[in-house]
Amino acid sequence: MASLVRSWIPLLILQSFLVAVAFGSKEAEQFSEALLLKPLPDRKVLAHFHFENRAPPSNSHGRHHHLFPKAISQLVQKFRVKEMELSFTQGRWNHEHWGGFDPLSSMNAKPVGVELWAVFDVPQSQVDTSWKNLTHALSGLFCASINFLESSTSYAAPTWGFGTNSDKLRYGSLPREAVCTENLTPWLKLLPCRDKDGISALMNRPSVYRGFYHSQRLHLSTVESGQEGLGSGIVLEQTLTVVLQPETTSVETNMQPSWSLSSLFGRKVVGSCVLAKSSNVYLQLEGRLGHESKNVDTEIEAHKLWKNADFDLSLKPDRVLRESSGLLFIFDIDKSSDSEPFDLGLNWKLPSKWSCQQAPLQASRFLMGSGNERGAIAILLKATESQEKLPGRELTDGRCTIKANIFQIFPWYIKVYYHTLQIFVDQQQKTDSEVLKKINVSPSTDKVSSGMLEMMLELPCEVKSAAISIEYDKGFLHIDEYPPDANQGFDIPSALISFPSHHASLDFQEELSKSPLLSSFKEKSLVRSYTEVLLVPLTTPDFSMPYNVITITCTIFALYFGSLLNVLRRRIGEEERFLKSQGKKTGGVKQLLLRLTAKIRGRPIEAPSSESPAAESSFLSTKLIFKIILIAGAAAAWQYFSTDK
Amino acid sequence: MSEMGAEVYYQKFHPEGNQFHPLHFFSGPDSYTLLDNVSCASYGVNVAGIIRAPRGDGKESIVLVTPYDFINGGDYEALSLGITGTLFSLLARVTWLSKDIIWLVADSRYGDYRPVAAWLTEYHSPSFKDSDLLKCGELNTADKFRRAGTMAAALVLKVDGRSERFEDTLSIYAEASNGQMPNLDLINVVNYLAVHRQGFYVKVEKVVSLLSSSWLKIIGEIFEAVGKLAHTLNPDWNFGIPTADYLEGSATLASSLYSQALGIPTGPHGAFRDYQVDAITLKVSPRFPPDSKTRQHDFFLRGAKLLEGTIRSVNNLLEKFHQSFFLYLLTSPSKFISVGVYMIAFALLVASLPMVAASLYIDGCKALNNSTLNPAGNFKSWKWLDAAKQVFALHLFGLIVTLLPYFICQVPGQHSPSNRSIMWGTTSSSLLLITFATIPGCSPFSSRRHGTNWAVLKSVTISAAFIGLCLMSIINFATAEIGALLLVPTCLIVQPIKPALRSRRIKSLLGAFCSMVLLTIGFPVMLFAISKGLFGEGLVGLSLGGEFWTWLESLWAWKSATYLYIGMVHLPCWLLCLCILFHPS
Q1: Using one digit for the tens of pLDDT, what is the confidence trace for B530-546?
Q2: Residues B464-499, buried b or exposed e (16+ Cβ, 10 A)?
C-alpha cells in the first residue's frame, strides 16, 4: 500500500487530471488539442495552438505507441533527456502591448531564431556528449541547423540564472536561424492528426507566416513512474503562437477590428481530431471584469457576457470562466461538422481600450560606442506602469525589493571585461555590493568556449530605471571563420531577464479545468523576458591583400635578382670595345619606329627582315628603353584591369 | 507618428558643445565633454519615431532625417517633412520591411549638424548619469529614448529653393569629416533610382568658376582631339571624351577634392560617419514655386518614391555594403575615380622628393668638403645634424603656432575674429624671432658663412616634407594631394636668391622669380585669399585676417586634420623654404 501511495505522489503533482484515468487497469496515451484566441490592445489577435501528448510509463522495451510520436520517445530514451525545450521564432514579442506578466507571454515569448535547452539524466561527464548527439538528432528531425549548437563555443551551462537549478542543463541559441514551413512540417508530423483534421487544420501556411510574431515550441519532460521495471512517461507539449493582424475595413482608428477564424486563417474548423481526448477553443478577453456583475446565475446575465453593447460573439460559448484579469470563453468544437463548421467570430461594436499586464521591469539591450575596436553592452531596465500593482515584492531588511536575474551568453569574439561592470540605478552609479546579490561569471576562452554571465540584482521597489553596462573588445577571427561573403556582422544572443520572485499564473474562480492548456496556465511560471539580439560588426579584413602582397613581393624579387644578375654577368668595358669595333649601324631606330606604328595600328608585324645578332646588340640601349616601356605598359594595363573589377 | 503605429520619443540636446581642444583631434566621437553647468535657456528637442519591422529581428535599422525648424521653418522645410511623413506612414503598413525604420526630425534651430550629432551621441554612448537637461521644460524625456539596433544606412532629406533647371534637381552631398566618404554603392543606388526611375536631374557640387575657364576648355579640346586621333588609329581605343564632359568632370572633381580636403562635413550626414554609418544628404529642388498646389502632388510622389526605392534597396541587403568602396573621388554622380588610379598621381608627385633629397645631400657634402677644411672632418657623416636641428626647431615652432589659438581663446573678454588673428599673428612672429635668435644657425639673416650648407638644409627640408605628406595622405588624401601640389614645386625649385642675383643669368633669375612666386602663394593666408577668389567670393583686404581666423576656427571645430597639416607640415616647410631663399651663401 505504501508503495502504491508513493507511486502516486508524482502523478498527483504533475498530472492532476490523470488520476481518474490511473484508476483504470491500463493507462492509455492521451492527446488533447486546444486553441486560445486573444485580442491584443494594439488591434492584433493572438492565436495560441496547444497540443499535448502524454505517454504513460510502461515497461515494454522496443515499445509500440498508439499516438505518441516514436521519434520523440526514441530521442528521450537514447539521450536520456529529462526535460527539453526547443523553439523556433520569427519576429519579436512586443512586451509593451502584448503583455509580459501572464503565463502565455512568459512561456511563449521566445528569442528570435532557435533556442534549445535540455536537462539530461546522465552522469556529469557525459552531459556534453549527450548534448552534442541531441543537437544532431534534432537538426535532422526539424530540418534546421541546430547542429551548430554542438560546438562548445555556442552553448553554455547556466547554473541558476536560467531559472532551473541543475548542473546538467545546457542552453544554446542560434539567433540567425531562419524559420519557415520546412520547420513547421516536421513539427506537425508529430501530431496524430497532422494538419488534416481538428484545430491544426487551421494552420494555413501563408496566413501563419504573414503574422507579426510566430513561435513554434516543443517542450518535453519525462515523468518518473517510481515503480521498478517501469520506464518513464513522457509529456510532449507542442505550441504554436502566432500574432496576426486582422484585415479591417473600418476607417476608425480607435475601433478594435472585428474578426473571425475564417478571416484570420482563411480556413474553418470542421470537427475535432478524432484521436484527441479533448479539443477546445478558448477566447480570452482581458480587462473586461470591471463593469460586469459578480454573479452569473441567471441566463440573461450569462447571455450578456457574450452579447452586449461592446461586442458580440458569433457562437454561444459552452462555458464562461472568470479569472483575475478578464474573461475566458470556452467552446467545444466537437459539435461542429462539415455542414456546420466552427467559425468563431468577434464583432466589436464600440471602441474599447485596455492594457496588458506587464512585467515589473521592461528590458532593452543595446550596444554602445563606435569603431571596430571596442564597445560596450548595456542593458536598460525600465519600470513599467503596472509595477506597483504586482505581487511578488519582497521585504529584506525592512526594504521592499524586486529581484531580477540576468543571464547572458557572450560569444568568444566578444571579449568582455567583467571588471568594467557598472550599475546605475535611477541615474546614480551604485557599487556592486549595493545592488548585486549574486553573480556568477565564466569567462570565455578564445575559440574554445563562450563566456557566460549570470547575476541577480536586488533593486528597490520604487526604482524607475536601472542600467547595466559592461565593456568588451572585439576579437579577431581566423580567416576561415569568416562567412564567405561580405557579411552583415556577428550576433550576440538574447539575454534572459527573469524575475524569480514574480510568478505568472491565471487563477480561475471556478475549479474545474480539466484541459491541459488551462492547467498549464494555472501552474505558476517564472516571469521571463528575452532582450533583442544584437549585431556586432567585426573588422572584415581585405581578403585580396595576401594576393597583393605576394604579387608585389614577387615583383621586387624579380627586379632585384634581374639587376643583380645583370651587374654580375655584363662586362661593360668589353661591350664598349666591341661597339667601337663594330662602328655605327643605322636602321635601328627606323626599325623600332616601324614596329611601334605596327603596334599602334594593331596589325601584326610584317615579316621581319633578316637580322644579325650583332645588329641586335648594337642598339641594346634602345631595346632596353623599349622593354621598359613594355613593362610600364603592362603595369598600367594590369592596374587598369585590376581596378576595373 | 504614434497614430501610424510607431514608437515616438523626444530628446533634448544642447546647441553648443564644439570647443577647441588640442587633444581631441583624433579621438572618437564619444569623448564629448559633458558640460557641468547647463542652462535651461536654450535647448533643442529632437523628435524620433521608430517603425519595427513586422517579422524582422531588430538587429539593423535605416535612418531617415529631416531637419526642421519648429519656429520659423519655411514652406520648403514643411514640404520635406511632408514627403518623409507620407513615406513613413506607408512604411508602417508594408510587409516587406526587414530592418527597422527610424525617422528623426532634427530641430534645426541650432544648425543642421548639431541636433543629429546630439541624437547619435545619445544613441551610441548615453551617459546613465543624471543630467540637468532632463529637468528643463515641461516635456519629460527621461528614459524614453529608444533604439533599433545597428544602423545600416542613413538618408538626410532636404527640400531646397527652386531649381534653376527645367527638371526637378537632386543634389547629393556625401563628404563627411576629414574627407571620409560613405560607401559608393549608396550614392549609386540613389543616383540610379533618381535618374532612371524618377527622372530627377542629379548633380553633385562643382566649382562653377572652372566651367567657364578658357584654359581648361583648351585642355579639354586637346584631350578630345587626341581621343579622336587615337580612335582613328585603333578603333578599340575609346578614351576620348567631349570637352563639355571634361569640363564638368574636372569642375566636380575639384569641388570634391576641395571639400574632402577641408575636412568639414557638407551636411548632417557627417555626424553618421563618426559611427561608421553610411549616410548622404539629398537636397531636392522642385521646379515650381512652393505654393503651386497642382505640381506639388507630382513632386511629392516622385520624392517619396525615390526615398522608398532607396530604403527598399538597403532593406533587402543581407549584408553590409562591400567594404572596399570608400576611397574614391567623384567626377559626376555616376562616375568616380578609384583609389588605385588617383594614388598614382600623388605617388609620382611625391616620389621625386627622396631622390632629390639624396642627390642634394651628396652634392652638399662634396661642396662642404671642398670649400672648407673642416676641423671636424672625422664627423663627416653627421653633417646633416645642423640642418636637422634647424628643421626640427621650425617644426616645433609650427606645433606651438598650431596650439596657440587654444590659449588665445582662453584670453578673457570678447574679441572680434580680426583682433584674435592679429594677436595670433603677433605672438607667432615674435616667437619666430625668438626661435631665430636663440637657436644658432637658424636665422637666414645671420652673416656667418659657416652656417649650414643650403644644399644639406634643403635636402633635410625635402625629407621632412616628404614624411609629412606621406603621413597626411593616409589621414586625408585630398589634403595631401592639394598640399603636395603646392609644397613639392616650392621645395624643389627653391634656391638661395643671392647667388642667382649675382650671376645675372636668365635661367637662374627665372628660377629665383619662380621660387618667389611660389613662396608668396604658399603662405597659408595668401592661399586662403586665393581660394576665396577662386570660389567666387569677394576679397576684402582688411577683414581678411578675421575671415582667415573664422575659417581656421571652423576647421578645428570640425576636428579637421587639415588644420594640423597646415600648422605642422605646411607652415614649417614654407618657413624653411624661406630660409633657403634668403640663405647667405
Answers
A1: 777 666 555 555 567 77
A2: bbbebbbebbebbbbbbbbbbebbbbbbbbbbbbee
A369 → closest Cβ in B30, B146, B322: B30
A-interface mutation test, from B7, B32, B57, B143, most A Cβ less than 10 A away: B57
The Cβ-side half-sphere exposure at A336, using a 13 Å CA radius, reads 22
Subunit contact A487:B324, Cβ cutoff 8 A: no
Is pLDDT at A12 greater than 70 in this prediction?
no
What gap in Å lies between CA B326 and CA B334, rounded to an integer? Answer: 15
Contacts of A429 in chain B (CB under 8 A): 128-129
Residue B424 phi/psi, 5-degree rounding, is -65, -45
Is the Cβ of B240 closer than 8 Å to some Cβ of chain A? no
Which of B276, B322, B340 is the closest to A486 by Cβ? B322
Nearest to A321 by CA among A296, A347, A290, A353: A296
B55, B234, B320 ranked by CB distance to A488: nearest: B320
Contact between A175 and B30 using a beta-carbon 8 Å cutoff: no
Nearest to residue B155, comparing CAs of B1, B308, B336, B348? Answer: B308
Q: Which one-letter amino acid corresponds to residue A34?
A: A
- DSSP 8-state code for residue B381: G
Element (H, E) at B474: helix B454-475
Q: Name the residue among A367, A467, A486 with its Cβ closest to that of B128.
A: A467
Closest CA to B384 of B313, B334, B452: B452
Are B349 and B343 a contacting pair, CB within 8 Å?
Answer: no
Question: Chain A partners of B126 at a C-beta cutoff of 8 Å?
Answer: 368, 378
Name the minimum distance, in Å, from the CA of A261 to any CA of chain B: 21
When pLDDT is cut at 50, 70 and 90, the band that residue A88 belongs to is very high
Burial class (CB in 10 A: 0-12, 13-18, 19+), A343: middle
- With cut-offs at 50, 70 and 90, classify the pLDDT of residue A63: low
Q: Is residue B119 classed as helix, strand or coil in its secondary structure?
A: helix
Provide the pLDDT for residue A36. 92
* A30-39 sheet: strands from edge to edge: A155-156, A169-174, A113-120, A81-90, A213-224, A232-244, A45-55, A30-39, A278-286, A326-332, A319-323
- Contacts for A447 with CB less than 8 Å, ≥ 6 apart: A153, A412, A478
What residues are paired with B11 via a beta bridge? B46
Task: Please say whether the beta carbons of B180 and B273 come within 8 A.
Answer: yes
Q: Which residues of chain B are within 8 Å of residue A367 when distances are taken between CB atoms? A: 124, 150
Cβ neighbours of residue B510 closer than 8 Å, sequence gap 6 or more: none
ipTM for the whole complex: 0.81
Nearest C-alpha neighbor of B147 from the set A10, A39, A467: A467
> Do B319 and A371 count as a contact with CB atoms less than 8 A apart?
no
Cβ separation A370–B324 shorter than 8 A: no
Closest CA to A135 of A117, A122, A159, A121: A117
Q: Please tell me if residue B236 touches chain A, with a CB cutoff of 8 Å.
A: yes
CB contact under 8 Å between B28 and A371, yes or no, is yes
Q: B323 contacts in A (CB within 8 Å)?
A: 486, 540, 542
pLDDT tens digits for range B229-249 = 888 887 777 777 788 888 888
- Side-chain-facing half-sphere of A377: CA atoms under 13 Å: 29
CB atoms within 10 A of CB B354: 15
Residue contact A532–B129, C-beta within 8 A: no
Q: H/E element holding A421?
A: strand A414-425
Averaged pLDDT of chain B: 79
Where b means 16+ CB within 10 Å and e means fewer, A549-574 reads eeeeeeeeeeeeeeeeeeeeeeeeee
**Which chain B residues are within 8 Å of A210, Cβ to Cβ?**
95
* Nearest CA-CA distance, residue B582 and chain A, Å: 41
Model confidence at B483: pLDDT above 70: yes
